[in-house]
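> example.struct
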C-alpha cells in the first residue's frame, strides 16, 4: 500500500482507472491510498477537458509518492509569458488566439487564459462570437462560442462547409445556416435524406401550413426553389427525382424540371425541345367563388423531349386536359379543352393549395378544410380538418388497360408540423406524432399487382417502412435512411428493393423488409435493368477499399405463369474496383447478362453471372491494362461470352 499525493497549482480533477477519485483545489494536495500495481491517471479540468494522461506505477516498499499533475498548465503559462514580448500578437474584442500543442484557446490583454486551448480550429473574435471545432470520440464537430467560451446555441454540430459569408452546420435532422457577419442563425432546414458531400442537398422548410422541399448547396444557399412535395438525392446521372402536386418529375442542378429521366438525359440533343409553361400572357378576369384570377404566372420551366406543351403540364381526366395554375396566392385547375374550344376560360376548384392530382383523384385545401374528390363522382367528396392531406392510392393492374384502377386506401395528414395516417373514412391509423410520412413508388409485391402502398415514416431523425393501408410498421424506427429502387414503367412489375442505412453501414431488404444483404457495407451503388419478361438488379458493394458485386435476376411469363427463373451472384468483396458498364449495340438485347467491369491486381476484366444451367465464369480473363481498353473491346468480349453460353445451352440439349 502506498500513499499518493496529487498536487496542482490550478484546480483540476483526478481520475484513476477512469474513476473519479477527487478534485484538487488550486495549490492544495489530494492524498489517496493505492495498492501496488499500475494505474491509468487522467488529469482533467473542472469542465472535464483532458489535460494529461499517463501511467502511474506503484511499487512495493514505497510509502509516499508525490505527483505534480499540472506541469502542462505551467508550460502553457510559460508559453503565454513569452507572448508578452511578441509585438506581432493582435487582440480582437480583448481576446488573442493562442496555439499550444496543436490546440487553440484565447487570452485577454492581461495575458490571462480566458478560454483553454482545447479546440482543433478557431477563428479570431472580429465579432463577439466565433466558430470553433473540436475532436470528439467519433469525429470533429463545430459550434459557436462567445468571448468567454460559452456555447451560444447549446449544442455541437456536424460541420458541412463554409464560404466568406456563411457556414452550414448540421445537428440531428436540422441544417443550420450561420452568418459569418455576426454568427447569428439566418436559416434552418429539415434534413429529409442522408447527406451526400459535394452535392446539392434536398431539404424541407415550413411555408405557412405546408412543408415544402427544395435544394440548398453546401453552404446553405437556396439553389432550387421550395416548390416540391418530395425531393430525393441527385444520383450518378446528375438528376434527382422530385414530386410536384403528386406527379413524379426529374430536376437538374439548375432547377429545370423534366417529365422523366429519359427526357432529361436527352437534353442538349437536336430532338429535345425546351418548352415553357404554355400560358397566355393574360387571362381575362373571372369570378369563381368570389376569387378573382387575373393573370397566370409560374416561375419554373419544364423541359420535354418531343412532347407538346399540353403533355408537359397537364393530366388527362377521362379524356379532358387540366392544368394547375397559380396567381395571387390562389390555385385552380384550368380546363384546357374549354380554353382551346372557346374564348372563355374554365377554371375549376379555386383553392389555397393543390396537394395532389392524377387522372382520378384531386386533393386540395380551401380555407380551413382539406378536400379529396374523385373526378368520376365529384359530389362524393371527402372533407377533413387538417393542415395538409396526401391521398395514398393503390394501383391495381390486370394487364388489360381498360381494367386498370386506382383505389383510395388511406390519407397522410399533418397538423402543426406533425404527421399521421387516417383511413378513407377519417378513422385514425397512426397518431399525428411523426416528423414525416412519405409515399414510395415501390410495389408491395409482384404477385399482388399493386403499388404505392409502402411508405417511409420518420421520427427523431430515424425512419422505418410502414404499410400505408393499415398503418403497421415493418420494423422499429431505428434506421438512418431508407431508399428504394426507382422504376418508371408500370407495366413491368418489380420486387421492391430497399437500401437501408443503420449505424453508418448499408444493407439491403426486400419488399417484406426481409434481409437480402446485412448492414455491414460502407457503400452500396444500385442499378436496375428490366426487359420484357423479367428484370435484373446489381449492387456494387464496398467495405473499406475492396469491392464486390451482388446480382439478382428474375424471369417470369406475364401471360402464362409458370416457373420463375432466378439467379444470384456471389457477394464476396475481393476486388480493387468495380464499375457499372452499359450493354451496347447487339448485346443490349441480352440485358439479362451482367456487365460489370472489375479490377484485380492492376488488370481489368468483366464480371458476370449466368443462368442456372450455365457455368459461372469465375476464371475471368483479367487481360486489360485500363478500363478504357476494356470498354473499347467490350462488345467483342461480351459477344464471345454469349456465344459460349449458347453453345453450351444446345450442347447440353437444354
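> example.seq
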Amino acid at each position: 500500500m502506498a500513499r499518493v499525493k496529487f498536487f496542482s497549482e490550478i484546480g483540476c480533477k483526478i481520475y484513476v482507472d477512469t474513476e473519479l477519485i477527487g478534485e484538487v483545489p488550486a495549490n492544495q494536495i489530494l492524498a489517496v491510498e493505492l495498492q501496488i500495481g499500475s494505474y491509468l491517471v487522467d488529469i482533467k479540468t473542472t469542465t472535464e477537458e483532458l489535460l494529461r494522461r499517463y501511467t502511474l506505477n506503484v511499487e512495493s516498499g514505497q510509502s509516499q509518492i508525490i505527483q505534480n499533475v499540472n506541469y502542462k498548465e505551467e508550460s502553457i503559462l510559460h508559453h503565454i509569458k513569452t507572448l508578452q514580448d511578441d509585438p506581432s500578437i493582435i487582440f480582437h474584442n480583448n481576446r488573442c488566439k493562442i496555439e499550444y500543442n496543436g490546440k487553440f484557446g484565447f487570452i485577454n490583454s492581461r495575458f490571462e487564459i480566458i478560454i483553454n486551448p482545447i479546440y482543433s480550429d478557431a477563428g479570431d473574435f472580429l465579432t463577439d462570437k466565433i466558430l470553433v471545432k473540436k475532436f470528439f470520440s467519433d469525429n470533429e464537430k463545430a459550434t459557436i462560442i462567445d468571448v468567454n467560451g460559452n456555447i451560444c446555441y447549446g449544442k455541437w454540430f456536424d460541420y458541412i462547409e463554409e464560404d466568406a459569408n456563411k457556414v452550414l452546420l448540421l445537428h440531428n435532422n436540422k441544417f443550420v445556416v450561420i452568418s459569418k457577419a455576426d454568427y447569428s442563425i439566418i436559416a434552418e432546414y429539415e434534413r429529409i435524406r442522408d447527406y451526400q458531400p459535394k452535392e446539392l442537398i434536398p431539404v424541407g422548410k415550413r411555408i405557412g401550413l405546408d412543408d415544402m422541399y427544395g435544394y440548398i448547396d453546401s453552404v446553405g444557399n437556396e439553389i432550387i426553389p421550395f416548390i416540391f412535395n418530395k425531393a430525393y438525392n441527385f444520383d450518378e446521372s446528375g438528376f434527382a427525382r422530385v414530386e410536384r402536386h403528386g406527379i413524379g418529375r426529374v430536376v437538374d442542378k439548375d432547377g429545370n424540371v423534366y417529365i422523366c429521366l429519359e427526357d432529361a438525359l436527352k437534353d442538349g440533343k437536336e430532338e429535345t425541345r425546351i418548352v415553357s409553361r404554355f400560358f397566355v400572357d393574360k387571362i381575362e378576369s373571372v369570378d369563381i367563388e368570389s376569387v378573382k384570377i387575373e393573370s397566370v404566372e409560374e416561375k419554373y420551366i419544364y423541359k420535354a423531349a418531343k412532347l407538346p406543351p399540353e403533355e408537359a403540364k397537364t393530366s388527362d381526366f377521362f379524356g379532358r386536359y387540366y392544368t394547375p395554375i397559380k396567381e395571387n396566392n390562389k390555385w385552380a385547375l384550368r380546363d384546357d379543352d374549354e380554353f382551346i374550344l372557346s374564348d372563355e376560360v374554365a377554371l375549376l376548384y379555386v383553392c389555397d393549395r393543390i396537394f395532389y392530382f392524377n387522372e382520378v383523384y384531386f386533393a386540395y385545401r380551401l380555407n380551413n378544410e382539406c378536400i379529396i374528390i374523385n373526378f368520376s363522382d365529384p359530389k362524393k367528396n371527402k372533407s377533413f380538418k387538417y393542415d395538409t392531406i396526401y391521398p395514398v392510392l393503390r394501383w391495381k393492374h390486370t394487364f388489360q388497360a381498360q381494367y386498370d384502377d386506382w383505389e383510395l386506401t388511406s390519407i397522410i395528414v399533418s397538423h402543426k408540423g406533425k404527421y399521421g395516417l387516417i383511413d378513407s373514412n377519417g378513422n385514425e391509423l397512426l397518431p399525428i406524432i411523426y416528423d414525416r410520412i412519405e409515399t414510395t413508388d415501390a410495389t408491395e409485391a409482384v404477385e399482388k399487382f399493386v403499388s404505392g402502398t409502402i411508405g417511409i415514416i420518420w421520427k427523431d431523425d430515424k425512419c422505418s417502412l410502414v404499410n400505408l393501408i393499415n398503418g403497421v410498421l415493418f420494423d422499429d424506427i431505428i434506421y438512418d435512411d431508407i431508399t428504394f429502387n426507382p422504376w418508371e414503367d408500370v407495366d413491368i412489375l418489380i420486387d421492391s428493393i430497399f437500401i437501408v442505412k443503420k449505424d453508418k453501414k448499408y444493407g439491403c431488404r426486400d419488399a417484406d423488409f426481409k434481409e437480402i444483404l446485412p448492414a455491414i457495407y460502407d457503400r452500396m451503388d444500385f442499378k436496375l435493368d428490366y426487359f420484357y419478361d423479367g428484370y435484373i438488379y446489381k449492387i456494387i458493394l464496398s467495405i473499406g477499399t475492396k469491392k464486390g458485386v451482388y446480382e439478382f435476376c428474375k424471369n417470369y411469363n406475364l401471360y402464362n405463369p409458370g416457373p420463375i427463373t432466378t439467379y444470384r451472384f456471389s457477394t464476396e468483396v475481393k476486388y480493387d474496383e468495380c464499375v457499372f458498364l452499359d450493354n451496347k449495340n447487339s448485346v443490349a438485347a441480352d440485358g439479362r447478362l451482367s456487365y460489370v467491369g472489375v479490377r484485380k491486381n492492376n488488370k481489368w476484366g468483366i464480371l458476370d453471372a449466368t443462368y442456372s444451367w450455365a457455368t459461372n465464369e469465375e476464371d475471368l480473363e483479367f487481360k486489360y491494362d485500363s478500363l478504357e481498353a476494356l470498354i473499347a473491346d467490350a462488345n467483342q468480349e461480351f459477344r464471345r461470352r454469349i456465344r459460349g453460353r449458347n453453345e453450351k445451352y444446345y450442347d447440353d440439349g437444354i
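> remarks
Residues 268-312, 584-592, 609-619 have pLDDT under 50 and may be disordered.
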